[in-house]
Amino acid sequence: MELDLPLIWGLxxxxxxxxxxxxxxxDLGIGILTGFAKSDDERNLMTATIEPVWDGNETWLILGxxxxxxxxxxxxxxxxxxxxxxxxxxxxALIFRGVAFEFRHKAVxxxxxxxxNGAFFYGSLTAALAQxxxxxxxxxxxxxxxxxxxxxxxxxxxxxxxxxxxxxAIGYVLLGACWLVLKTEGEVQRRARNRGKIALVxxxxxxxxxxxxxxxxxxxxxxxWGFSMTEIEFGKLLPLSPIPLIGLVLxxxxxxxxxxxxxAPDWRPYVLSAGIFLSGYLGLAVSLFPNIVPFEVDIWQxxxxxxxLMLMFVGAAVMLPVILIYTGYVYSLFxxxxxxxxxxxx
Length: 346
Description:
By secondary structure, the chain is mainly α. It has 15 helices and four strands. The strands form two sheets. A two-stranded antiparallel sheet has the order 1-2. It has a two-stranded antiparallel sheet with strand order 3-4. It is globular and about 55 Å long.
């Protein structure tokens, strides 16, 4: 049986993006939460929970972007000019945030420490918002003529993309708060639970708002879900309805765990929150598949030649398990609660 290499590479890139969102989204959320820390000790404890893993989490962003360039060059050539500004903003924020992560531990004078703490917070927030703007602009589609981007430099900046950007930032805060529940104890954990509940309410509202707004983006999306201005096609809607329903159930379960009304292991809020993201991601995939440039180019039209895809697939088959094993090993090695007196900067 002949392999459908464009489909395989589409799944690989989609998986890499999702892993980036769940892992680096978590530490971007913690970076945002450091802006609300009560003291330097609390802020240091929060950053200590991600010190061993934060830079490795960005591996998946490189794989997603590099995979798009190599496997789907046409899509890359169309999408990059459409999102030059938010991509540059995101990369600058990630670089500035990375520098701040290290320098804040070296600062001695209070003004310098305040500067680097602020840089870490604003870098994390800016990166999260920029990623949301890119996602929102991607969902609403770009203007294509022939095989090239034909829109304006600010086409991505719309009320819809701003809504998605805010939603992504709030979602990252939820992931970060749930990670702190897993990795901390005492007062820091209690505050993480409270902040997580606030973020969860925001996620629920944004989940509904973005879902409804996405349905209005293009008639082909509403048709995919079985909606029209005059009727609902239950034959299409019912098979897809478990996707948003699972998201709603997971939201209720996270709320229950964060309130502490039931005895739940500390790892469960983060896992359930990741499930909320997965349900939203799956809903987005259902809405847009097989387009890689909505609603202009599909994955088969944008793919590189099969011989190039096969060569890269052989390399990916070797390297991806290595990356996954290494990532799993690092997370297992540093599993458990963080000791505030032990961090690699000390």
